[in-house]
């Protein structure tokens, strides 16, 4: 029997997921057919039409939904009653609603109009996105157990700091999965600091413009499920477990064929790309794990490459100068892409611009084509005026602290403008009210996050000297504490002395501690470095994080002037995540 033909009671039927030549449609097209527009797919479709839809599976994402909607037609020429149900029991007025939205968007780019219409109808069925950014532990004991088992299995693989610089394993996994990462357009983010916050802002903007998004960031603050988000919310523990078991047989196939097994990060990356294709999403926002050229995420064709500020970090793997690090991070720049370049050290900028020229990429530079026009400290954040590539956007409230967050916002706005073709194909600006609404909704757990008052306790995941410097400036500007106590727990591969030197002017005293990670620097070793910077009288050692938090709060309360004391917990994402959990529990 020919592929795709089912001799059933209704006669020969065409499998909508197989082409006329018997080839399975790409993963993203299948996912789109299954989830986005099932009411456009009765039992049979013209073979020729499906074959046409399958042509050019590597085409950028926005064109795929347009072809599917406009080219796929039912086998039957009979027009059903517009108010009756289809074969799936779904009212045909949902199809009418889709057409109505497209018609209303006729003054816009047709590809974007169809994308947004599909997303809005899908959202209408699925409900509004959830805003919780750090999920609680699963309430169901069975789900919690299943999630723990998955984490234990993943922990047997190479950790995130043990690398073999190659994308061969992740490429092999993508191949056996059907190249899910090519089912949607992507925005790829690299840099040293600000990647996660920028990713969250980009995600919020795309969501506000009615696009379904997938976001992949690392590391997580509290729950591993945070790393993979759909429509602004981490996937559920149940979905995380299901996704892992869905791809596990393919992971084992690749493990058996490669010199080294897939690493922890490579498996998570495969899970993210598969989950995004299955959702399906209109756009993926992907943060690299480390570097760029050989990072596991670098199997996507990012139409927009975002490079946040580069400084010294992971110098044993990426290079000892900003220029050397930029060479690795510039590997995310793809042929013909648009590059959004945050302010960079001169030597790093030179390397990145050369990479862009070699890739025939278009470059937008902060301070030239876009940037921060003005900013003012406000209650709960700051008020911004940003200049994008399409125009100026004023009256933006960003509920995050610090000049660095304002610059992240400018980068995120430019990236979304580039994604929509603003400043290039379309000489127009984005809807300003939508931009304002998006930025006002942004959260970034563990980044200048206030988790307690009296005394105020702030969490920030700064873990290198450049990050510590901007955090110190942001704390001084936003809070003006009369007395600030630091709680610092760091990893053993970081420039801890540089971090301490950045915080020395603002910390009255520092409590050194360690988190539960095997990579944590022992508290006594950390204390020895702290004494070099602060002197023995300003350093207290508390190996347990809960004791360190209690000691810091006590120090702040004992000598506070008119209640103006505070505590800053910093040094590592893991330290911040564990402190957040302890403080949220009271």
From TrEMBL:
This is tetrahydrofolate synthase. Gene3D superfamilies: Mur ligase, C-terminal domain (3.90.190.20), Mur-like, catalytic domain (3.40.1190.10). It comes from the Bacteria. It comes from Streptomyces cirratus. It catalyses: (6S)-5,6,7,8-tetrahydrofolyl-(gamma-L-Glu)(n) + L-glutamate + ATP = (6S)-5,6,7,8-tetrahydrofolyl-(gamma-L-Glu)(n+1) + ADP + phosphate + H(+). Residues 446-572 form the Mur ligase C-terminal domain. Its EC number is 6.3.2.17. It is an enzyme of class 6 (ligase). The lineage of its organism: Bacteria, Bacillati, Actinomycetota, Actinomycetes, Kitasatosporales.
């Amino acid at each position: 029997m020919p592929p795709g033909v089912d001799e059933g009671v209704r006669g020969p039927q065409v499998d909508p997921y197989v082409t006329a030549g018997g080839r399975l449609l790409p993963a993203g097209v299948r996912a789109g057919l299954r989830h986005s527009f099932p009411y456009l797919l009765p039992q049979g479709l013209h073979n020729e039409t499906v074959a046409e839809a399958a042509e050019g599976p590597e085409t950028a994402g926005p064109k795929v939904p347009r072809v599917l909607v406009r080219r796929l037609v039912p086998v039957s020429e009979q027009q059903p009653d517009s108010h009756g149900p289809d074969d799936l029991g779904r009212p045909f007025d949902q199809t009418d609603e889709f057409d109505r939205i497209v018609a209303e968007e006729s003054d816009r780019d047709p590809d974007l109009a169809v994308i947004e219409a599909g997303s809005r109808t899908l959202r209408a069925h699925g409900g509004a996105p959830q805003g919780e950014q750090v999920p609680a532990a699963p309430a169901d004991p069975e789900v919690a157990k299943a999630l723990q088992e998955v984490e234990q299995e993943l922990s047997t693989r190479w950790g995130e700091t043990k690398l073999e610089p190659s994308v061969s394993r992740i490429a092999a996994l993508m191949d056996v999965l059907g190249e899910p990462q090519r089912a949607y357009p992507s925005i790829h983010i690299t840099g040293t600091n600000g990647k996660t916050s920028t990713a969250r802002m980009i995600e919020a903007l795309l969501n506000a413009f009615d696009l379904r998004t997938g976001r992949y960031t690392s590391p997580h603050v509290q729950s591993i499920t945070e790393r993979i988000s759909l429509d602004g919310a981490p996937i559920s523990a149940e979905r995380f477990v299901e996704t892992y078991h869905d791809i596990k047989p393919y992971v084992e196939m690749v493990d058996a064929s490669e010199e080294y097994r897939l690493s922890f990060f490579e498996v998570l990356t495969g899970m993210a790309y598969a989950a995004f294709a299955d959702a399906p999403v209109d756009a993926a926002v992907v943060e690299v794990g480390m570097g760029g050229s050989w990072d596991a995420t670098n199997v996507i064709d990012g139409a927009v490459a975002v490079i946040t500020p580069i400084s010294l970090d992971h110098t044993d793997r990426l290079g000892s100068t900003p220029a050397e690090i930029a060479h690795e991070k510039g590997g995310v720049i793809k042929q013909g892409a648009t590059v959004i370049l945050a302010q960079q050290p001169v030597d790093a900028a030179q390397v990145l611009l050369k990479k862009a020229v070699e890739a025939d990429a278009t470059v937008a530079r902060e301070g030239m084509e876009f940037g921060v026009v003005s900013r003012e400290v406000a209650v709960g954040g700051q008020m911004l005026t940003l200049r994008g590539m399409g125009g100026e956007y004023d009256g933006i409230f960003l509920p995050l602290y610090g000049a660095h967050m304002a610059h992240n916002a400018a980068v995120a706005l430019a990236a979304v403008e580039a994604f929509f073709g603003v400043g290039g194909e379309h000489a127009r600006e984005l809807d300003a009210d939508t931009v304002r609404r998006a930025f006002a909704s942004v959260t970034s757990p563990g980044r200048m996050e206030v988790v307690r008052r009296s005394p105020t306790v702030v969490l920030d995941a700064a873990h290198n000297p450049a990050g510590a410097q901007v955090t110190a400036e942001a704390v001084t500007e936003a809070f003006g504490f009369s007395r600030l106590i630091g709680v610092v727990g760091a990893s053993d591969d970081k420039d801890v002395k540089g971090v301490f030197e950045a915080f020395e002017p603002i910390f009255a005293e520092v409590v050194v501690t360690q988190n539960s990670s095997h990579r944590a620097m022992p508290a006594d070793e950390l204390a020895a470095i702290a004494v070099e910077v602060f002197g023995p009288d300003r350093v207290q050692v508390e190996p347990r994080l809960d004791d360190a938090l209690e000691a810091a709060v006590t120090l702040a309360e004992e000598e506070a002037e008119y209640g103006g004391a505070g505590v800053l917990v910093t040094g590592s994402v893991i330290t911040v995540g564990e402190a957040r959990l302890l403080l949220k529990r009271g």
